[in-house]
Amino acid sequence: MFQDLSFDLPSGTALVVTGANGIGKSSLLRTLAGLVALAGGTLWLEQGEADRSPAEHAHYFGHQNAVKAALSVLENLTFWQGFTSPVSASVFGATAMSPEAALDLLGIGHTTDLPAGFLSAGQTRRLALARLLVTPRPIWLMDEPTSALDKASEGQLLDLMNGHLTAGGMIITATHTDLALARTKILHLRTADPVSLHEEDLPA
Ligand SMILES: Nc1ncnc2c1ncn2[C@@H]1O[C@H](COP(=O)(O)OP(=O)(O)OP(=O)(O)O)[C@@H](O)[C@H]1O
């Protein structure tokens, strides 16, 4: 249970959620993604689609990759593209990428017809990441997005994240890695008596 948790996030900005193991970073992201119901409080998204919830404006990139091993790499991505409808927001200008282009961009274009179960951990992570590119949604919820990625892939992830911010998107990410994101705010979760949380700007 969170108490005294409050933050706002302008478009084009990333919120980096920090705090000790077990403090609730993943739980916060899962709540924002609509996977856990809000016990109280209000979540408000401005300038999105009025008939959709904030969670429906978001992609959730969690610990698990949601990749079906028996389907081909392309079939996995095509499934997700059909399953997640695009959502617009007035300040968000990203356009959908084709599955083939997204796989090429992420360096796994040569694996298109392979069963996804043949991919390495890092390649599977990149396939999961491709989902965010084939359906434009203004909010990216990213839990430890660098896990299983090598340094080169980490740099590419950073480019994608910064591209999303430049397009007017928002990112909320829990990470133990220092990510050089263009515009960042920090939300540090901490225990106190009672649990208290506060938001602060990232030092320059
Ligand atoms: N499905 C669940 N059922 C019960 N308790 C859970 C569940 N998921 C998480 N918790 C508990 O909620 C608390 C917060 O967990 P959470 O995974 O959100 O922490 P975290 O800050 O992301 O940790 P880490 O840095 O280790 O990933 C922990 O005490 C954990 O045991």
TrEMBL record:
Q: What class of enzyme is it?
A: hydrolase
Q: Does the keyword Transmembrane apply?
A: no
**Gene3D superfamilies from the xrefs?**
P-loop containing nucleotide triphosphate hydrolases
State if Transport is listed as a keyword: yes
Signal sequence range: none
The GO terms describing molecular function are: ATP binding; ATP hydrolysis activity; transmembrane transporter activity
Against InterPro entries, the record matches this protein to: AAA+_ATPase, ABC_transporter-like_ATP-bd, ABC_transptr_haem_export_CcmA, P-loop_NTPase
Q: Which residues form a coiled coil?
A: none
> Per its UniProt record, what PROSITE patterns does this chain match?
ABC_TRANSPORTER_2
Give EC number(s), comma-separated: 3.6.3.41
* Protein name per its UniProtKB record: Cytochrome c biogenesis ATP-binding export protein CcmA
Originating species: Roseibium aggregatum
